[in-house]
Amino acid sequence: MQRAETPPATILTSFFAICQSDPFARTLLYSEMPRYYTWNASSKNLQRRKQGDAVPGYPDVRSTDALGRMSTVHPKNDECFYLRLLLVNVRGPTSFERRTVNGVIFPKYRAACEELNLLENDTHWDTTIPEAIISASPSQIRTLLAVIISTCFPLNPCNLSHKYKDNMSEDILHQIRVSSRNHDIEMNEEIHNRALLLIEDICYLMCGSLLIRLGMPAPNREMNDAFNRELEREREYDHQELDLVVQTNVPLLNSQQKEVYDTLMKAIDDENGGLYFLDAPGGTGKTFLMSVVLATVRARSNTAVAVASSGIAAHC
């Protein structure tokens, strides 16, 4: 804890310190500092070189041909990457809090870089995506956006996603209209969310990052996607067709099947719930009976999800 509160000096923090008191140091970029200063490892501070060429206007400063080397930082390590970008462009920084541009203190290094115009804008992406929309499918547009935000690091990926969200979701809307047999369904937030889920899956395959790490809002990914897909399917049944199935098949139940059917439907109608175990030899019509029960529940616009557990067929 003490080391965290008072960390040891490094070359970078010493450069910050010397920029606070040395007018010449405030004219330098961090990468230029080794030409004029040396690092004293024992005292952990920077000292002016005593040998080398004189620097015009600074009689006490000597210059050499020493080169400063800075470690590379991957853009995925975002704040470190933008801190490094500031260090190679801003002269005379005095602390890690050097995020002030034109008198405005920015909360993050990236914002300071944007204000200093050190980052490209998204104009070229605003040209690329509309060109793709002319001939590409929604799936291809989603893949293109995933490639852009995963590998090209646009300035504002949220704006790109929001601007073209309808174009990236048209196939999803079409699938829902066909499966539900309802062509009046319009584009909505749930459809946009599905598109974001697909984009996030592509990004994760390409770079191992979720959208929230790439400057995008996280899609609403439920804990159990498979169960949610089943629930969604429950809303897409044709109730008139199910009514016909019930009217046709209920009279075909034998006496024992009808007893089970009536018992289950009464439990549902009375909202009593319960756990029922149906035991009968193979080929006696258990599956047929349960298909009629499921059809009856679904025809009433209720939810009936058929699942399997531990190798034993189950219906709930």
From TrEMBL:
Residues annotated as domain DNA helicase Pif1-like DEAD-box helicase: 253-314
Reaction(s) this enzyme catalyzes, per UniProt: ATP + H2O = ADP + phosphate + H(+)
Cofactor(s), by name: Mg(2+)
Domain of life of the native organism: Eukaryota
Matches recorded under Pfam families: PIF1
GO terms (BP aspect): DNA recombination; DNA repair; telomere maintenance
EC code: 5.6.2.3
Gene Ontology molecular function terms on file: 5'-3' DNA helicase activity; ATP binding; ATP hydrolysis activity
Keywords, comma-separated and alphabetical: ATP-binding, DNA damage, DNA recombination, DNA repair, Helicase, Hydrolase, Nucleotide-binding
EC primary class: isomerase
Gene3D superfamilies found in the cross-reference section: P-loop containing nucleotide triphosphate hydrolases (3.40.50.300)
UniProt similarity note: Belongs to the helicase family.
PANTHER family: ATP-DEPENDENT DNA HELICASE, PTHR10492
Protein name, as recorded: ATP-dependent DNA helicase
